[in-house]
Amino acid sequence: MASFTPDPVLDRLSILDPAGYRAVLDDLIAVLPGSIVGYAALNPADIAVLASEEDEAVRAGIAAREDCPPEVLADLARDSHAAVRQAVAGHPQVTAAIIQALAADPDQWVRWAVARRVDLSQWGIWEQLAQDPEDLVSRQIAMNPACPEPVLMSLVAAGDFGVRWDMWSNPALSDSVKAALVLSGVEAPENYRLVAEWNATGNLPTDHDQLRTLLNHPGLDTAALRAILDQVGAGPNTYAVRSSLAEHPSADEDLLADLVRKATYRWEWRSLWKRYYPDTWPSTLAMASPAVSDATRAALNMAGHPAGLISTDLPPVPCFPDAPEGLAQLIRSELLVRALWRELALSGTFAIQAWNDNLEGNKFFLDVPGEDAGSGPIGYLLGGYSEDREWAQMTSYLDEHDAQRAFANLGEEWEFEGVEEWQLDEAMCAFISNAADWTDDLTITPAGAAFILETASEMDFDSEDLSTKVTIVESALPHIGFGAAAPAKQDLLLDLLLDARSQVLLGEWGLVDHFLTCLQHHPSTCQPVRARLDQILGKPSV
Amino acid sequence: MERDVAQVCREVVDLMGRLDEDVLLEALADDTELAAGLMYARAANRGLVELHEAGAEKVQRALITLAELAEEE
Q1: Closest Cα partner for A519 from A290, A302, A339, A316?
Q2: Taking the mean position of all CA atoms in its chain, how far away is CA A175?
Q3: How far apart are CA A309 and CA A319, in angstroms?
Q4: pLDDT one-digit tens code per residue, B20-55
Q5: Which residues in A have their CB inside 8 Å of a CB on B?
Q6: pTM listed for this prediction
Q7: Residue A250, Cβ neighbours under 10 Å: how many?
Q8: What share of chain A is helix, strand, coil (3-state, %, to 5)?
Q9: DSSP classification of residue A339
Q10: Given CA atoms A4, A9, A14, A20 in this order, what sign does their dihedral have?
Q11: For helices A239-247 and A266-276, what crossing angle results, to 10°?
Q12: A16 vs A173: CA distance, rounded Å
C-alpha cells in the first residue's frame, strides 16, 4: 500500500485559508490530477472524481489509497487497465468477491499482486494461486510468509527450480520445509547462508560482494550496518556497499550522515538523496507547472511555499517548511536551477555546459570556476540526466576537436574494408588523428583538421563523440527568476539557503554553497544581500 | 617538409596507385606499421600533416615494403 505524499504547505493553507485551499485542490484535480492523487487530505468526493480520471496512473493511485471507499474500489476492480486492477489487488479493504475475481484475472501481474497478500487464508485461494500457470505467481506464493506449510510442501514437490529457490526468501519457513528444500536439491542461496552465519556468529564477511549481498537482508540491525561501514570505509571501490547501506531501512541518522561524508559516486548520491528527500509535494508540482492558475500560485505563496521566493510576481513571504525541506523542494522541481542558472547564463556570468556521456550519463551543469560540477554531486543532482528542460535547447554538433578525437578512437583498431578513395580517406583520417594524439610522428595542419572534419561529417558517430551547444530559450514559467525579485525576497532566499546549510547532505555536498555563489555573482543581486554574501563567502576574486 | 621526404611520399602514393587492389588491401589489413606509413604519406602529399622524424621514417620503411610488394607482383 502506497504511503501518502506529504505536503506541509497545503496542510498549512487548509488552516490559514480554507476557501483558498479548496480552490487550490479543485485547480490541481482539474489540471494536475497526477500531482494530487497521493495527498492524504482528499475527501471522498475528490477521490470519486479522480477515480474516473482518464489517466490510468491516476486511477491506479486512487486504488492504492488506504481511504479509497469500497464502492470506488469495486468499480476500479473492473477497470480495463491491468495496472489499476493490480493496485486494487493489493488494497487491504477489498471484499472476498473482488479478491476471488482478481485471483482469476487474465493479467499475471494482477494475480501476482493477489499472491503477495498475507490474508489469503480466509478466502481459500492458496492452492489456486500456487498452481497458477505463470511462475511469477507461484514464486510469489512460495515467498509469502503467510503461506500454509502444506501448500509450500506441494510447491517443493512440484519441482520447479525457480519456485524452490525463491522459497528461501520466505522469512517464515519451518525447519521441515527447509529440510524438504535441501532434500529436493536446492540449497539455501548465498544471501540466506550469509544471514544465517551472521546471526549465529556476529561475524561479517570480508568480501565486498558478500557484504552487499548480505545487505539485501532487511533483518540487519543498525549495529551491523555500522560495522559494515567501518569495514568498507571510504574506499573508491566500495561505493556499491555504501549505496546499499544508504537504502537499508535500519540505517539511522548518524550512519546516513557518515555515508553522506564518505560518498564519492553517483550511486551513493542517488541513494542518499532519495533517502533524505524522497517526495515532491503536490504544491511544488503546482508551483512548477504552467497549467495552474495564478490564484493557486498566490495561495501557495501565502502559505509559505519556498518557490514563492523565486516567483517575481508574488509578494515576499518567508518560507514555511523547514529550510532543508524547502530547499530540497526547489532542487527536486528544478525551480531554483531554472531561476539562477538561466539568468547567470543569459547574463554571461557563467556558462552552462552539456556533454553526452554514455557511461556516466549525460551531463548538464553550470560551469562555476573552482567547482567540480561536471563530475560531482552538484552537477549530478542539480543538472544531470533530465532531458525535458524546455528553457535550455541543446544542439549536438561536431567540431574539429570532436572529429579528431572520434577518428583517433577509431584509429586504435582500424579495419580496412576496401581501397576505394573514400575508404582510404577515412582510414587516413583515423591513422593521422590517432598518431597526432599518441605519437610524435606528425602534426596535423589546419588543412588537415578541416579535411578530417569534412570527412567526419559524412560519418555516423556516436552522440558521445559530439559537442553540445546549450541555448537558453524562453521559459514556460516566465515569473520564475531571481534578478527581478524584490530585495526583501532575495534576502529571504538567502536566509533559506543559510538555514539549510547545516543539513548534512545539502551542506557537505556543496549544494548550498553552490547557490550562494550563484547569488553572489548574479548581476542583479541587491547590495545588502551581496554584502551579506561577501561577509560569508569572502569577496569574489573575479 | 624537406624535399626528400616529400619525394618519398609522392613515390609511396604513386606505388599505392599502381598496386593491385587486393594486394594493397591485404597488405594494409595485415601490417599496421605499413598502413600507418602509407596513410602518413598520403596525408603529407596533400598537405594535411607535417611529418616529424619518426613519421618520416615510417614512410621510408613503408616505401621499401611497398616496393617489394610491387616487385613480387
Answers
A1: A339
A2: 40
A3: 8
A4: 999 999 999 999 999 999 999 999 999 999 999 999
A5: 414-416, 418-419, 424, 427-428, 431-432, 435-436, 439-445, 447-448, 451-452
A6: 0.86
A7: 15
A8: 60, 5, 35
A9: H
A10: negative
A11: 10
A12: 53
Mean pLDDT for each consecutive 10-residue tract of chain A (542 residues)?
88 97 98 96 96 97 96 97 98 94 97 97 94 96 97 96 94 95 92 84 86 84 92 88 95 97 94 96 98 98 98 96 96 96 97 84 88 85 78 90 92 90 95 96 97 92 85 95 96 97 96 97 97 93 65
- What's the one-letter identity of residue A239? Y
CA atoms within 13 A on the CB side of A198: 23
Amino acid of residue A400 = E
* Interface contacts A/B by beta carbons within 8 Å: 73
- Would you state the pLDDT for residue A196? 84
Instruction: Note whether A490 and A407 are within 8 A (CB).
Output: no
Of A416, A428, A440, the CB nearest to B43: A428
The one-letter amino acid code at A347 reads S
What is the identity of the amino acid at A384?
Answer: G
pLDDT reading at B3 higher than 60: no
- Are the beta carbons of B29 and A416 separated by less than 8 Å? yes
Answer whether A38's CB lies under 8 Å from A61's CB: yes
The reply to whether residue A451 touches residue B46, judged by beta carbons under 8 angstroms, is: yes
DSSP output for A42-67: --HHHHHHHHT-SSHHHHHHHHT-TT
- CB-CB neighbours of A355 under 10 Å: 16
Whether residue B49 and residue A440 make contact (CB cut-off 8 A), yes or no, is: no
All cell numbers assigned to A176:
521441515
Cell of A405: 578525437
| CA–CA separation, B50 and A364 (whole Å) | 38
- Global ipTM: 0.96
Distance CA A286, CA A71 (A): 30
Residue B19 · residue B66 · CB < 8 Å: yes
> Could you tell me if B24 lies within 8 Å of chain A, comparing CB atoms?
yes
